[in-house]
Amino acid sequence: MKAIHYGSLQIMTGMRDVIACGGVESMSNVPYYLTDYRNGKRMGDGKVIDGMMYDGLFDPYNKSLMGQFADVTASTHKISKQDQDDYAIKSYEKAAKNVENFKKEIVPVKVNNVTFDRDEEVTKFKGADKLRSLKPAFSKEGGTVTAGNASKISDGAAFVLLVSGKFLKSNPTYLASLRNENVFEVLSFEDAEKEPQWFTIAPSLAIPKALKRAGLTVNDVDYFEINEAFSAVALANSKLLNLPEEKVNIWGGAVAIGHPLGCSGARIIVTLCNVLATNKKTVGCGGICNGGGGASALVIKRVDPSQFKSSL
Question: Domain Thiolase N-terminal: where (predicted)?
């Protein structure tokens, strides 16, 4: 999502007219680090560091796992394990129900005669009873976050194409080609910060900031996409912003389809565009937390390209 922020700024300042923005992540290929092996080991034990844990799932400030912070968030906001399990089950069910809709935003990839054309995690759901039976994964006492109600380690990529109003006006042929396409305008974007351990609820600050910059309120938004790093994260932010369930992650989220860290922000916006277009709605808002206490949000609007106006 931050890439879309930066791309939008490039267009707003007139530096670029067309930018592809997105993210790619292959969590299954993150290496292990050998921090003191460059010149070889002469004597004594060595240390191997899990790069995915070290750079993605572990907070360097508090020396804690992100999942432990999610446990604290759930406890603080009175979100039970049952609440989280119920949410996760719904996420899987909604994602499974909308497999055909997701195809509109998926580009099939063929590797060694195998074609990947759908999110794999959705098909791995073993049922509600199995998910509810899973034990807390991060905190020995009082923990409620499990492997089932948390997002999944995944590989993925997502991109959007940003163009300026000036480019559209000066390229009538390209503009005409969009006549039957769904086109969206970036209305605003914002960031917000909390203490590192409260990264989980930082979207509840970033989203109102972005909406205010767009001159909108929560009530003006047709659909929200909030990253499901953990079910507790989506539940806590929805609770803090008083968002109706029927407007949030209506096709499921990262719990059901995966959370490739560097891809998820862009994936949220791609899905948000798809949701708005499919349901013929207008305004959408995406929000995502990131390690270190931060969060980003983006507000978009579905527009008629023939009527598109730009201040550039």
Answer: 1-164
